[in-house]
Amino acid sequence: MSILAMVGSLRAGSYNRQLAEVAVKHAPDGATMGDRAGIQLSGIKRTIRTGDGVSLSVREYGSRDAAHTIVLLHGLCLNKDSWQIQIGHLRRHFGDGIRIISYDHRGHGDSGAAPMHTYHIDRLAADLADLLVALGVTGPLTLAGHSMGGMVALAYLGRPAGQRPVQTHGLILVATAAGKLAERGLGQLLAGPVPDIFYELATHAPHAVADRVLRTLARPLGGALVRYGGYGTASRHAQVEVSAATVNATPLATKAGFLRALRHYDQYRTLSSITATAVVISGGMDRLTPPSHAHDLARGIPGAMRMHRPAAGHMLLDEAPQVISNAIVDVVSGHRTGEMKRRVPRDYGTPVSRQPLASRTRKRAGV
Question: Which residues face 76 on adjacent strands?
């Protein structure tokens, strides 16, 4: 059975076990089949409810009494399983010494659907705040966000202090932006009529008609965006197929709601006030959030470090998994040792177990 054929059996909003098995089979460099399978079967599954009553599907790893918590935020039309490789790396490095939380945004994966007017970044930031309270997170805290997940992290940091239940000590921003999405790369499609057409169809047309039209339009478009904009020259065909399948499995109302909302997303005003240790990671072949967005982030966030992989695209979690994992390890370890603000990242392409923290100050990664 082909990957896309398997996706045809998916219920909207549910990540099929068969797709997870495909991800195991085609695990990229840095993660073996055993890694993926072990990760998939470990962790504690929970469900929490947001302030407006939407159920969020959560998976936790490590002890609630751990000295540091990492929250992993996935991108649009993806789900919490997109972080599986990094979770494996972090678990091997820290064991139960840290707490890892991954979850599906509203309208994604195994989380509940919500009214379309709530599909915007500020509401996702409120969901993150609700989750931190519901799970009893008190800090220290590191947020790691890919694509839309990075936008959620920035929107959380842009909330008034009284609406941020936990102070953020570390921030990993992967293939993301502070705004101006409709001005650059494939994001310029957001400035056209397509998002409004999708939204109006999903909102007002009879369900059967809207579903048929939107699937006809969105399925080839989603696959093309993943293939053309998501991956760089170092990707495997199987990785592209798995990501395209996940995108196509996302409910159509979710796509329509968030695509229109992204046009208005803007957190540039937040950047200068961020006090967390920040690492910004970009891919040179990323056409969805081109590297100029990473340049703006690194320039706007005080003391931010920028890592750039010229041959990688938007799906850096798959294409450069160790780079992401090592950045998280450095930020968490730096907080533990008081070295958080040292602008001396190591070679992030080398596995963390082969470079102890003491040696990291002697290496500088390419920018």
Answer: none
